[in-house]
Amino acid sequence: MMSEKKLAIAVDIGTTTIAASLVDRESCERRAFVGRRNPQGSFGADVVARLQAACAAPDNLQLLQRSLTSTVEEMVEELLRMAGTARKDVDTIALAGNPAMEHFLLGLPVASLAYPPFRPLFTSGKLLQSTSLGWKLELNGYLFPLPGGFVGGDLVAFLFGTLAETPQRPAHRPLAALYLDLGTNGEIALVTAEKIFATSAAAGPAFEGGNLACGMPALPGAIEKVEITGERLALATIGGQPPCGICGSAVIDTVSALLREGLIDASGRLLAPDEIASNLGTRVVEIGGTSAFVLYRDATRTVFLSQHDIRQVQLAKAAVRAGMEILLQRAGLRVDDIEKVVLTGSFGAVLSPEKLKNVGIFPENMVKIADFIREGALAGVERALCTPEGFTAADNLAKRIRVVPLSGTPAFERHFLEQMNFPKM
Questions:
Q1: How far is Cα 112 from Cα 117, in angstroms, rounded to an integer?
Q2: Domains defined along the chain, listed by start
Q3: CA 151 to centroid of chain Cα atoms
Q4: How confident is the model at residue 185 (pLDDT cuts 50, 70, 90)?
C-alpha cells in the first residue's frame, strides 16, 4: 500500500487525548505534531461509559463516530498547515487505538466489546480509504490490529516501536521486560524470550488527568510538574501558560510529594489542617464539601487535588499493580525477574520512576530499570510507517500476543485489594 510519497500521517487515538504527527518515512523524522482532547468525553471519561452509550441508542454511536472522525480529519489538516505541506504530498495514514476507539472510528457495532465475551469484531490490521470515514482528503489508511477485547492497536504500536530496542537476551537467564501504557485502559505487556502476555486493567482516566476535579489532558496550560521542598511549592505548566488544570504527570508528582511530607497517610486520607505541623496545612481547604490540596489560586480560578482525586489515583494504581501481578503469575515469573521496564502515556512531563514507586505503581526493583517514552504508541505507528512491510510486521506481532483477561477473576480482585493502600513512606 505504501507509495513513493515520503510523507505520512500517524495517529494515536487515546481515550482522553488524540495525538497525531506528520512523519517523513525516509528519515522517520516528525515534521509536525498536534494533540487534542478526545471529543467523545461528553459521553463519559472512560471507555465503558462510551460503550454503554453507544449500545443504548444507534444515534449515540453515530455521534461518537462523527465526533472522532471529524476531529482526526481536522488534526490532519492542521498538521499539513503547520508543516507547509500540500495535500498531494501525503497519501498514507496509520491509526492505532484501543478496540473501542477503533470500532468507533469505523462506526462498527460495539455490543461485542460492551458485553461478554468482550471480543472485537476484527483482530487483524485493516486497510481502508479515508473517504470511507467521510473525509474530503483521500488517503490510504491502515488501522492497527486488535489482539483482544480491551487490548488494542495502541499497545501493539507501543510494542512495535520499542521491542526492536530491547537488548539481546542475557546468557544467564531469559529476558523479561514489562511494558506499561498508563492510559485510561492501563494496558500492560510482559515480554519473555518466548512469549508475550498482555492485559488491560481498568485504571480509569486519572493518569491522564481525566475524571478529576481540575484534571485535563497534557495540553497548554496544564500543570505538568509539582515540586514540594520544605514548605515551598513550585509548579511548571505546559507551554509556560497560566495554570488552568492538572495533567497526569503533576497528579503523580503531587500525590508522591504529599505522601513524602505526611499530608496523605497510607490509607489515602488527606490529613486535616490541624493535623499538619507545617505551613502546607494552609493549602488544605474544603471545596465542594470535600478536602482538597490547593496547587494554584488567582482571581479567576483555583487548581486543586481533592480527596476524591486521590482515591481515583489509588484505584488506578491498584488496578495496574494487580494486572502486573497476574501477568507475572501467568508467565511463572517474579517481580525480581523483570530486567527492563518501559513506560508510556499521555502524562505531560517525563515521570520519575522514584515517584512511581512512592505512589505504589512500581516496586523498589523497577526504579533503576525503568525508561519513559513520550507518545509510545504514536512512535510505534510512526515506526510502522517508516519500516518496509511495517504493517505486515505489526500484524505478525499482534498474533504473538496472548491476552489474559482480568475481569471477574478472584486472583485479580485479591491483588487489587492488596494494592489499594499507598506504600508507607
A1: 7
A2: 7-154 (3.30.420.480)
A3: 12
A4: confident
- For 368, other C-beta atoms within 10 Å of its C-beta total 9
Give just the sign of the alpha carbon dihedral 231, 358, 412, 249.
Answer: positive
Name the percent of the chain in helix, strand, coil, to the closest 5.
40, 25, 35
pLDDT digits (tens, 9 = 90+) for 236-285: 999 999 999 999 899 999 999 999 999 999 999 999 999 999 999 999 99
Q: What is d(CA 281, CA 231) in angstroms, rounded to the nearest whole number? A: 9
Q: Is the peptide bond before 117 cis (omega within 30 degrees of 0)?
A: yes
Transcribe 20-57 into DSSP letters: EEEEETTTTEEEEEEEEE-GGGGG-SSHHHHHHHHHH-
Q: Is the pLDDT of residue 402 over 60?
A: yes
Residues contacting 167, CB < 8 A, separation 6+: 175, 340
User: pTM (2 decimals)?
Assistant: 0.91
Site of grid cell 525516509: 26
Q: How many angstroms from the chain centroid is the CA of residue 265?
A: 27
Taking the mean position of all CA atoms in its chain, how far away is CA 81? 27
* Strands 196-200 vs 401-403: parallel, antiparallel or unpaired: parallel
pLDDT above 60 for 170 = no
**Please, which residues have CB within 8 angstroms of residue 405's CB and are 6 or more apart in sequence?**
118, 148, 149, 199
Q: Say if residues 89 and 23 touch (Cβ distance below 8 Å).
A: no
Q: Report DSSP letters for 351-384, one per residue.
A: PPHHHHHHHTSS-GGGGGGEEE-TTHHHHHHHHH
Of 116-125, 204-213, 281-290, 391-400, the range with the lowest mean pLDDT is 204-213
Q: Rounded CA gap, 91 and 22, in Å?
A: 11
Query: Is the four-CA dihedral 186, 324, 350, 249 of positive or negative sign?
Result: positive
Helix intervals (H) in 121-241: 153-162
